[in-house]
Amino acid sequence: MSGGHQQHPARVVGHGHDHDDHHGHTHADHGSLKSYTTGFILAVILTAIPFWLVMGKVIDKSSTLGLVLLAFAAVQIVVHMVYFLHMNTKSEGGWSMLALIFTIMLVFIMLSGSLWVMYHLNHNMMPGMMTDSSMHETVPESMQNMPGMDMSTMPKSHDMHDMPNMQQTP
User: Fold this and answer.
1) Which DSSP helix (H) or strand (E) runs through 75?
2) Tens digits of per-residue pLDDT, 60-114?
3) Which residue stretches of 84-162 are H helix?
4) Exposed/middle/buried for 150, CB within 10 Å: 0-12, 13-18, 19+?
5) DSSP label of 118
């Protein structure tokens, strides 16, 4: 049956390009033993220093210690992203870095908004914590000078022990 039928080559090339081409997409370097070793050493150092700071009680003030630990954590995140996830501005055409920046912005907005709401809820919903100066702030100025309105007779706090007994007697 060789009359007019042509033999096809063993390797058929599809659309005029090799399958290793991936339509012009370039892939980032997957790292070398040197880069993985550098990342590992940095990660160990960035873990050991905060551990020593906490266990050795090097920094006395807890707020300062918290900020220092957060700084070490942020640097550790960057080390992991660069050395192990191979994220840079060139990988994936810059889209992975753009997605990271967008994610960081969303997390910042959500955290700061949540902290803002919680602070104001705590401030506005805790009447037992009000002082004399804040009590004067809550009473409108026009009512503070009303005849018969003595600010010294106003309760200093809302104490539950001063409330009348609500139990029913049988």
Assistant:
1) helix 62-83
2) 999 999 999 999 999 999 999 989 988 888 888 888 888 889 999 999 999 999 9
3) 95-125, 132-138, 141-144
4) exposed
5) H
